[in-house]
C-alpha cells in the first residue's frame, strides 16, 4: 500500500515552505515583546544559544525523520522505531505534537486576525491621516470583533490546507517571503535614522540579568519560532525530495528566521526609544507592539510610510498564514494517514475543533471576565496552588496567555527533548548520517556528524533538562 506522496517541486520550494512555517508571528509579534518584557540582552543571548545548540540540531533531526519515513509524525515514529528500544511508544511524540498544534493554532489565529484589522486601520490612516493610533485594550476587548477576525483567518487557512501542499503553499511563499524580507530591510534602515536606534541596539545586545522563567521562555521560544517540537518539520520533511540537503536547508531556515526576529526587534525598539510617549502609553500591553507601536513609525517617523504601512500588514498576514497552514497540516496529515479520512473531511473536523478553542482565546483579552481571568490552579495569592500557577504558568492569567505559555514553554521543549533523545540514542546513527548525507568516503559518519550527534545526545537534552529543573525548583540567577 504505497501511495505516491505529494512533493515539493524543488529544493528551494521546500526551503521556502519550511521557512514560511518558521517565519511568522513568532518573529514579528512575539519575539519583540517577550524580549522587551525580559529586559533585552541577556534574554537574546540565551535565545541565540538555544537556537544554535538545540534548535538547529533538532531541526535536522525532525526533517530527517520525516523524509526517511515519508509519513506524518505518528506513523513516521512508529515506522522508524520498529524493533528499537521503546518501539511504538515513541509515537507519543507525534500525538503530543498534534495536541500542541491544536493549542498553538487556537491562539495564533487570534493574533493573525489582528493583522487584518491593522491592515484596515492603515488603509484608513493612509487615506485620511493618522489619528495617533489605536486603543489596543478596547480592540482586544471587543469580543465579537475578535472572534470574527479569528474566524476569517481560520477559514482561509482551512481552505488552503484542503487544496494540498505543493500547489498553494509553495507558490505563495515563493513570492511573499522575499517581499517581506525587502520591506523589513527598509524598515531597519529607516529605524537607523531615528534617535533611539543606538539605545535599541544597546538594549538588544548588552547582556542583562535573566531569571529561570526567562530562561524557559527563551528556550520555549526557540522551539516555537523554528516550528520545532511538535512534528511540523517532520511533516514538511516527509514532502522533501530524496536528493535535497537537509543540513543546508536547515541552516538556511534557521538563519533566515533568526535574522527576521532580530530585525523586528531593532525596528520595534528603535521606535520605543525614540518616542517615550509611545513607550509609556504602551504600559502593560506590550503584546500590542507590532500592531500599535509600529504604526507610529510608519506615520510619524518614515518617509513614504503611508505607502508601506498597509502593504506591511498584508505581509504580516501572509507570514502568519504560511505558519497556520503548517500547524493545521500537522493535525490534518495525522487524520489522513491514521484514520484514512479524506483531506476535506480531516480539514473540516480539525479546523472546527480548533475554532472552538480560538473562540475562548479571542474572548480572553478583556471581552469575557471568566476567560480573561482564568488561572489553571485558581486565584490564590499564596500557598501550594499559587506555587503551581507560578511554576508552570509564570502566574499568567487568561485563556490565550495560558495556551501560549503551555504550548511554547512545556509541550514544545518536552516534544523536542523526546525527538533529540530518539535520534541521538535510539535511531542507529548510520541511518541519520546517511539521511543527512554526512558520510565520508569510506561510508562512515564524518566529523560534522559527530558534532551534531554530540549535540543531539548531550547538549540539547541536558540543556532542556537543566532549564526545566531550574523552573521547577524555582531558582533564580
Ligand atoms: N514558527 C512559527 C512562528 O514563529 O510564528 C509558529 C509555529 C508554526 C510554531 C508552526 C509551531 C509550528 F508547528
Ligand atoms: Na519563527
TrEMBL record:
Transmembrane segments: 12-31, 43-65, 89-111, 145-167, 179-206, 218-239, 251-275, 311-336, 348-368, 410-428, 448-473
Membrane protein topology class: Multi-pass membrane protein
Localization (cell): Membrane
InterPro entries membership: Na/ntran_symport (IPR000175), SNS_sf (IPR037272), YocR/YhdH-like (IPR047218)
Protein's UniProt keywords contain Transport: yes
Superkingdom, natural source: Bacteria
Entry keyword Ligase: no
One cellular-component annotation, GO: membrane
Keyword field: Membrane, Transmembrane, Transmembrane helix, Transport
PROSITE patterns found in the cross-reference section: NA_NEUROTRAN_SYMP_3 (PS50267)
Main location: membrane
Pfam families noted in UniProt: SNF
Alphabetized PANTHER family for the sequence: TRANSPORTER (PTHR42948:SF1)
Protein known as: Sodium-dependent transporter
Amino acid at each position: 500500500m504505497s501511495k505516491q506522496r505529494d512533493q515539493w517541486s524543488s529544493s528551494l520550494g521546500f526551503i521556502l515552505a519550511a521557512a514560511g512555517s518558521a517565519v511568522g508571528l513568532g518573529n514579528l509579534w512575539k519575539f519583540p515583546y517577550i524580549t522587551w518584557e525580559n529586559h533585552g540582552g541577556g534574554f537574546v543571548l540565551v535565545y541565540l544559544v538555544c537556537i544554535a545548540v538545540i534548535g538547529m540540531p533538532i531541526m535536522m533531526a525532525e526533517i530527517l525523520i520525516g523524509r526517511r519515513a515519508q509519513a506524518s509524525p505518528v506513523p513516521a515514529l512508529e515506522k522508524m522505531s520498529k524493533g528499537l528500544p521503546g518501539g511504538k511508544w515513541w509515537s507519543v511524540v507525534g500525538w503530543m505534537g498534534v495536541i500542541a498544534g491544536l493549542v498553538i493554532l487556537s491562539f495564533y489565529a487570534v493574533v493573525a486576525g489582528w493583522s487584518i484589522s491593522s491592515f484596515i486601520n492603515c488603509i484608513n490612516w493612509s487615506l485620511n491621516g493618522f489619528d495617533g493610533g489605536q486603543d489596543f485594550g478596547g480592540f482586544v476587548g471587543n469580543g465579537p470583533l475578535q472572534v470574527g477576525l479569528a474566524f476569517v483567518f481560520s477559514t482561509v487557512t482551512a481552505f488552503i490546507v484542503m487544496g494540498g501542499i505543493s500547489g498553494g503553499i509553495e507558490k505563495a511563499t515563493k513570492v511573499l517571503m522575499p517581499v517581506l524580507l525587502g520591506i523589513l530591510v527598509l524598515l531597519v534602515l529607516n529605524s537607523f535614522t531615528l534617535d533611539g536606534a543606538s539605545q535599541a541596539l544597546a538594549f538588544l545586545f548588552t547582556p542583562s540579568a535573566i531569571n529561570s522563567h526567562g530562561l524557559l521562555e527563551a528556550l520555549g521560544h526557540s522551539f516555537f519560532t523554528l516550528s520545532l517540537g511538535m512534528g511540523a518539520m517532520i511533516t514538511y520533511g516527509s514532502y522533501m525530495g530524496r536528493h535535497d540537503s537537509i543540513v543546508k536547508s536547515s541552516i538556511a531556515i534557521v538563519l533566515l528566521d533568526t535574522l527576521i526576529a532580530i530585525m523586528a526587534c531593532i525596528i520595534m525598539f528603535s521606535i520605543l526609544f525614540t518616542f517615550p510617549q509611545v513607550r509609556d502609553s504602551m504600559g502593560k500591553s506590550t503584546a500590542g507592539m507590532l500592531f500599535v507601536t509600529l504604526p507610529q513609525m510608519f506615520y510619524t517617523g518614515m518617509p513614504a510610510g503611508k505607502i508601506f504601512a498597509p502593504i506591511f500588514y498584508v505581509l504580516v498576514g501572509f507570514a502568519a498564514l504560511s505558519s497556520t497552514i503548517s500547524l493545521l497540516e500537522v493535525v490534518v496529515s495525522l487524520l489522513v494517514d491514521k484514520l484514512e479520512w479524506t483531506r476535506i473531511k480531516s480539514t473540516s473536523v480539525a479546523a472546527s475543533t480548533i475554532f472552538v478553542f480560538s473562540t475562548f482565546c479571542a474572548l480572553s483579552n478583556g471581552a469575557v471576565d471568566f476567560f480573561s481571568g482564568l488561572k489553571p490552579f485558581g486565584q490564590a495569592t499564596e500557598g501550594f496552588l499559587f506555587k503551581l500557577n507560578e511554576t508552570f504558568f509564570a502566574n499568567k492569567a487568561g485563556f490565550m496567555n495560558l495556551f501560549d505559555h503551555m504550548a511554547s514553554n512545556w509541550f514544545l521543549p518536552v516534544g523536542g527533548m523526546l525527538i533529540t533523545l530518539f535520534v541521538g540514542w535510539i535511531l542507529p546513527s548510520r541511518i541519520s548520517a546517511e539521511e543527512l548525507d554526512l558520510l565520508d568516503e569510506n561510508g562512515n559518519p564524518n566529523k560534522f556528524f559527530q558534532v551534531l550527534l554530540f549535540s543531539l545526545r548531550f547538549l540539547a537534552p541536558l540543556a532542556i533538562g537543566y532549564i526545566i529543573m531550574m523552573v521547577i525548583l524555582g531558582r533564580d540567577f
